[in-house]
User: Which sequence fits this backbone?
C-alpha cells in the first residue's frame, strides 16, 4: 500500500506540474457525444466538478464509480435536471443498491434534449427550400455500475454505458442512381468507466484516479470518431481534521481534480464543501483552463426522517463566459 500511495502521489503531482506546459496545445473537435462530459448533478457542479474523491452516493457513478462502494445505507436514489446552454436540457437519474460484502450495484441514465429544431430541404420554390417539420434529435446513455471496498483503504469500481445519439434524418441524391434516399443520422455503442478510491491512512485524506468514456471507435457513415475519453487524478480531505473542536458539528472538504481530456488540454478543478450539523451545505469551486466555464457555487439540504429515510436537495449555479448562467437542481433519497 505504501508503494501505491507513493505512485499515485507522484503521478498526481506530475500531472499538475505539467498542465502549464501543454496549455497552448488545444485539441478541439476531436470527439463526439459531448453530452457525456457535462456535469449532471447539482452537488458536483457546485464544486466545479471536483467530485471524484467526494461522491459517496448514486451521483458518484457519473464521476468515479468506485465512490458508490462508500455508500452505507441500503438504497440511494438520485435525480437531476440541468438547464444547459442554447435551450439544451439534461436529465439524469441513478440508483444504488447495497449488497453488503458482495459490493454495491448501480444503474444510471442520462437523457439529452437538444430543443426544437426545424427541418428543411431543397425545393424549387421562391425560398429555395421547404419545411419538413420538427427534427427528432436527442441523446441518452444508460449504464450499469459495480463497486466494492476490497480493503478498509482501497475501493474499485466499474461502469459500463450504452450511449446513443440521434440527429434526425436527411435526404440526399445518390450518385449512382440519381434517386433521392434517406439517411438516419444515428450512432450508438458501449463506453466504459473505471475508478479507484484509496485512503492511505492520514486522517480523512483520500486519493485515486478514474478513466471515463473509454470505448472503441464509433462509426458514423464511413467516418470513425472517438468519445470524450477523460483521465482524472484527484484527492480530497476534510480541513477540519486539524481543528478537532469543530469536527463534531462541522466539516469542510477540499477537493482537487487534475483532468486530462482527449479533446482539450489539461484542466484543474478545485472545489470545497462545508457542512453544518450534516444538514446544511455550502459549496463553491473554480474550473481552470476552460473557454466558457469558471466559477461555481451552490447549496444543499439534507433531512433525516424517522425510519432511516433521508432526503437531499441540492442547487448549483455555474457562471458562463458568453452564455447565461447554468442552473441545476438535484433531489436524492436514501433508505
Assistant:
Amino acid at each position: 500500500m505504501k508503494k501505491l500511495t507513493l505512485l499515485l502521489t507522484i503521478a498526481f503531482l506530475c500531472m499538475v506540474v505539467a498542465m502549464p506546459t501543454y496549455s497552448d496545445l488545444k485539441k478541439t473537435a476531436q470527439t463526439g457525444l459531448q453530452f457525456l462530459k457535462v456535469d449532471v448533478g447539482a452537488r458536483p457542479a457546485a464544486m466545479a466538478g471536483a467530485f471524484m474523491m467526494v461522491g459517496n452516493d448514486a451521483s458518484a457513478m457519473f464521476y468515479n464509480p468506485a465512490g458508490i462502494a462508500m455508500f452505507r445505507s441500503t438504497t440511494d436514489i438520485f435525480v437531476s435536471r440541468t438547464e444547459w446552454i442554447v435551450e439544451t436540457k439534461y436529465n439524469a437519474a441513478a440508483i444504488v443498491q447495497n449488497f453488503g460484502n458482495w459490493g454495491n450495484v448501480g444503474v444510471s441514465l442520462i437523457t439529452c434534449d437538444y430543443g426544437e429544431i426545424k427541418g428543411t430541404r431543397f425545393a424549387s420554390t421562391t425560398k429555395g427550400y421547404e419545411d419538413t417539420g420538427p427534427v427528432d434529435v436527442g441523446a441518452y446513455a444508460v449504464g450499469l455500475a459495480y463497486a466494492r471496498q476490497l480493503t478498509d483503504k482501497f475501493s474499485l469500481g466499474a461502469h459500463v454505458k450504452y450511449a446513443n445519439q440521434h440527429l434526425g434524418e436527411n435526404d440526399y441524391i445518390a450518385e449512382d442512381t440519381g434517386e433521392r434516399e434517406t439517411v438516419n443520422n444515428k450512432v450508438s455503442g458501449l463506453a466504459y468507466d473505471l475508478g479507484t478510491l484509496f485512503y492511505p491512512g492520514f486522517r480523512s485524506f483520500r486519493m485515486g484516479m478514474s478513466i471515463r468514456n473509454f470505448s472503441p471507435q464509433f462509426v458514423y457513415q464511413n467516418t470513425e470518431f472517438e468519445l470524450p475519453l477523460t483521465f482524472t487524478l484527484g484527492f480530497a480531505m476534510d480541513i477540519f481534521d486539524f481543528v478537532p473542536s469543530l469536527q463534531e458539528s462541522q466539516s469542510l472538504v477540499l477537493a482537487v481534480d487534475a483532468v486530462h481530456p482527449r479533446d482539450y488540454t489539461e484542466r484543474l478543478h478545485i472545489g470545497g464543501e462545508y457542512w453544518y450539523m450534516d444538514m446544511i451545505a455550502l459549496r463553491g469551486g473554480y474550473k481552470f483552463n476552460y473557454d466558457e466555464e469558471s466559477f461555481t457555487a451552490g447549496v444543499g439540504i439534507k433531512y433525516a426522517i424517522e425510519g432511516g429515510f433521508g432526503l437531499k436537495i441540492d442547487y448549483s449555479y455555474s457562471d458562463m463566459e458568453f452564455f447565461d448562467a447554468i442552473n441545476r437542481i438535484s433531489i436524492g433519497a436514501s433508505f
Q: What stands out?
A: The two ends are 34 Å apart (CA to CA). Residues 15-23 have pLDDT under 50 and may be disordered.
